[in-house]
Amino acid sequence: MSDTGEEWQVARRRKGAARKSNLLQVSVASTCCQEQLDIGKTVKRIRDTVSELRCEDFWQEWKEQLLVAGPASLSKHPENEDPADQLEKGREGRLCPHLECVCYGLGSFSSCASARYQLAMLLLVLDAGQIPLKDCSVYDPAFSTGERDALRELGLTVLTENEEGKRLATKPTLFYMMHCGKALYNNLLWKNWSTRCLPLMIIVGNSFNGMRDRTIEREFKRDYSYISQAVDVCAERQLPCPSRVIDVFSDTAVITFPTSNLNRLPQSTWAEPPEPQYQHCPDLEIIQRKTQS
Questions:
Q1: Which intervals hold domain SRR1-like (predicted)?
Q2: pLDDT of 278
Q3: What domain range is 105 assigned to?
């Protein structure tokens, strides 16, 4: 493995300590050098990191878990058969290329090694799922102009609007959300809070069970009600994380929403879900959209 002195460092956290969102990890040094980013060098470094991860045993385990999660969760659509036709298991056990991808919260990958490895893993996930690069939309308010150019050079689609995670899944969609704040997940669930939309989603991100374990129960139910309800009906497959990459990929799971589980909830669960407001959350862990006065 290359660059071992810089890259694979075990990060120790106090038990129960909250993880900072990648959205908040923009250093002063990275801000100063963003505009002088060497696009070619940055892209090469990312591709080298992809090659490095591809040889890792834990990536092979990730790929197996992802390939199992995709067809199982999306092979049947609850109300409309068309999306089911869009996602079938390929001849080699891969997902067909009709799955779209949305990535939130990578952070400043040109200066942060963890963010770069998470981006490299995203590229491997896209390859494994046969998702065209152009069908993957990425957004983080921390991206510099140079980083956005580097992402476009890689072939990804860069979003220009801060959606705050409020994106409706109208077709099978993989959401890649590594170490994002709970509000981002909660917003995504709210926007898709129906028995039609939730089964269209695969989330690769932080374990909902882990979020519940690290949050005071009363606050969890009050402030993140959609995660609180989803945690008991979603299906989580924990992804392996060697100790040397614990700060990069710890507590990561593949999360899906089987229709059979959702149908266990009372119909009142889905009636006019209120938009989250977060009045009681001073440390929201996401950068919110600027409102026009």
A1: 99-255
A2: 83
A3: 57-73+97-270
